[in-house]
Amino acid sequence: MHEKCQTMKPRLQKHANINMLETLRNLKNLIVVCGHFGAGKTNFAVNLAREKAEAGNKVTLIDLDIVNPYFRAADNVAELTTLGVKCVVPDFANTNVDIPSLPPTVMGALEAYEREPDRVTILDVGGDNGAVALGMYKRFFKENGYDLLYVINMYRPLTEDIEGAEMILREIEWSGRIHATGIVNNSNLGVETAAADITDTDSWAREFAKKCGLPLVCTCADVSLAGKLDSIPDVFYIKNATKQIF
Amino acid sequence: MAKKVLMKGNEAIAEAAIKSGCLHFFGYPITPQTEISEYMAKRMPKVGGLCLQAESEVSAINMIMGAAASGSRCLTSSSSPGISLKSEGISYLVGCDLPCVIVNVQRGGPGLGGIQPSQQDYYQATKANGHGDEHILVLAPSSVQEMAQLTSEAFDLADIYRMPAMILADGALGQMMEPVDFELGTKREIPEKTWACNGTEGKRKKNIINSLLIDPDELETSVVNRFKRYDEIAEKEVKYEEYKCDDADIVIVAYGITSRICKTAIAAARAKGIKVGLFRPITLWPYPKKQLGALADKAKHFLVCELNMGQMVDDVKVATECKKPVSFFGRTGGVIPSPDEVLAQIEKLAAAL
Hints:
The complex is a heterodimer. By secondary structure, chain A is of the alpha/beta class. Chain A is 35% helix and 17% strand. Chain A has a single domain, classed as P-loop containing nucleotide triphosphate hydrolases (Rossmann fold), CATH 3.40.50.300. Chain A has helices at residues 2-8, 10-14, 22-25, 41-54, 77-82, 104-115, 138-144, 162-176, 195-199, 202-212, and strands at residues 30-35, 59-64, 86-88, 120-125, 147-152, 182-185, 216-222, 235-238. Chain B folds into 2 domains: 4-236, Rossmann fold; 240-352, 3-Layer(aba) Sandwich (Rossmann fold), CATH 3.40.50.920. Chain B has helices spanning 9-19, 34-43, 57-69, 80-95, 122-127, 144-161, 171-175, 216-236, 256-271, 289-295, 313-319, 339-352, and strands at residues 4-8, 24-27, 50-53, 74-78, 100-106, 137-139, 164-170, 177-181, 240-243, 250-253, 276-281, 283-285, 301-306, 326-330. The longest helix of chain B has 21 residues, at 216-236.
């Protein structure tokens, strides 16, 4: 019986997170990913979309980034589409047009979520004031319930201390007219990240979550570090989704 | 601050400027460098400095002139079209012998062009940044770490030689994130700014800063003296990197983000047994002519790689005195070549050697 299940879902075997973290499984189906720019929101959102899809969910990923000109969720459309993830990206993402417009398909995707509430709908929001893009969709969050995950990286200079990280969280909540419900610790130094760099940030992340009165939903680490972070609970192993240019 | 931090290239420039004692930032937003302004707006009030969004790039460069004349370390930044607007001010800064740092995070042109990365302002930066017989220092970083370190060095060089220094980056370097250690790099001794217009307090003769010299002989003398300084800079301040050039048949000449792409291509070519290396000019002005020229006796072929239509090719031909053939490969308009595309060029050249 057990073997049969595995052969039926070969994709699950390949991925490091065969068993999705309970904290991620328990999230509401409408998930907003926010944070200081450069915290790693897109990496987290793309990996969460992949994880949810591989666990058999219907998934929509909305690139709501009106801040970044390049390196964005739209870079991952091809891979996610093959996993069955519906991707909604701004018309001008990764083109030469510098217009922070949001297409009507975003509203369409949120309306689809209302009709189909078991569809996991993830919004990848631009950094800092990029959260202003959320304001116009407030009705959907208010009426349907949501989780807003605030992604933090202790190695980012303006969020290296708890005060700085909290200030940006409040700015985001104010611009987006929405409140955070959980914290994601994505502290990393890019390709140079060692296991110790992540474990060193655990107590900081917990203290920050406590100060904000929010749960620490998970700690992210690159899949290459699998097995090296057993001292921390709820580690979400992710694959780098940033476009590589060299 | 932790020893290493993860930053966007644009942020690294801004933080390095603040750590170098820059207290005045004047700018105007333009993609892909706007994070410099945003970072300055958040950080400058905390260090007692001033971040001001001017009404245009022209205003910003003229505000720089005022701040520099007072002896303050100051920074302005923009991207390609915005730098064109600053060009008159840059020439005036040179004419006044004023130090400052100007950042160009290049995007695709000409005209309004696009917002993707380019290196299309090489000519403008190294040969024609403003009118008149003049040069500015031009430094080309190739990593976020260098965005920080070269910004710090640019402030020192600008003060030592009393002239503007430019960080010539590109959108990819501005937007990408890498770890940075701000403690790396060397600090230079900076001469006292006895020329600054910062108040005589009735104790000295007033200083005058001016680029208007009506008498042709006087103007000629000032230009000639400035060029003596340029000779000294060319002698002392050239920076470059040689990578696997010792046994190289083919030497790629590339700077900035393109050099990173080329290094990946070189590793792949070396794995196939092709002897290829990289010469990376870090100062684009002064250009490392002698050092590149020395390779012309060993290498068989030079390949220039840039995100433009071949603006550095002539400098390579001059440096190598055309002793060996010089080829070019580049993409333009905001398109970045993949390492595989560069590898294909290397293989083509290797087959013809």
